[in-house]
Amino acid sequence: MTPTVQALDPETFAQLRRMPLFLGLAEDDTRILVGSASVQFYPDSVPLFDRGMPADRLFLVLDGHVEIFLDENNRRSILEMAKSPAMLGEAALFTDGRYANGARAAGHARVLAIPAEAFRTVLDTRFDLTQRMLATMSMRLRGMITQIAELKLKSAAQRVGGFLLGLTESRDGRAVVKFPYDKRLAADYLGMTAESLSRALQRLSAVGVKSRADNVVEIADLRQLHDFCVEDEE
């Protein structure tokens, strides 16, 4: 199955200008960077790119989620579940670069695909834009380091709780959230089995979390769940 491809529309362009890479950038400069880009919609599990492929495009996640993974010895390791405003395929910034990992849609993904050669041509003459690109890459790297730290330091219930908190912009009161993709995939991302995720959800019932049908979860008190996720466990 191939992605649906559309031209960059005014609404998406306005969305881009609110992303960290383009925030505060003059409209003309933004148009220079994305002038040859297209909007692509990927259904569930359809790959954006595979490891080792020539990195001919850079991707910005507009909506949905993208699974970043490595396959080694018939085993798949999920490195990241990227969402807006993540930038993917940084190898495209280097001539003859190749993608260091695979990427595929999780649930669905709408992305901006920017041809690498055109993007590199702009960066070669605009050091200020190169600095923005490096800052965006640094921000994503910090997020991945935080994720690794949580895998090492947090319990399964705390990791699941933190994942649920990330599904809502609210910080207080009650919330109802839904897993954005299959629970088994979420479990892999959180470094646990599907059975461990179910047990973690059961444990979270003690702090007001209730799992319902259709991957829906009720959170009675967001602040209480947050406090549980940040406390040190013996």
UniProtKB/TrEMBL annotation:
Domain HTH crp-type: 154-223
Keywords associated with the record: DNA-binding, Transcription, Transcription regulation
Domain spans labelled Cyclic nucleotide-binding: 21-140
GO cellular component, one term: cytosol
GO MF, one annotated term: DNA-binding transcription factor activity
InterPro entries on file: cNMP-bd_dom, cNMP-bd_dom_sf, Env_Response_Regulators, HTH_CRP, RmlC-like_jellyroll, WH-like_DNA-bd_sf, WH_DNA-bd_sf
Classification via Pfam families: cNMP_binding, HTH_Crp_2
PANTHER family: CRP FAMILY TRANSCRIPTIONAL REGULATORY PROTEIN, REGULATORY PROTEIN YEIL
Protein name per its UniProtKB record: cAMP-activated global transcriptional regulator CRP
Gene expressing this chain: crp_12
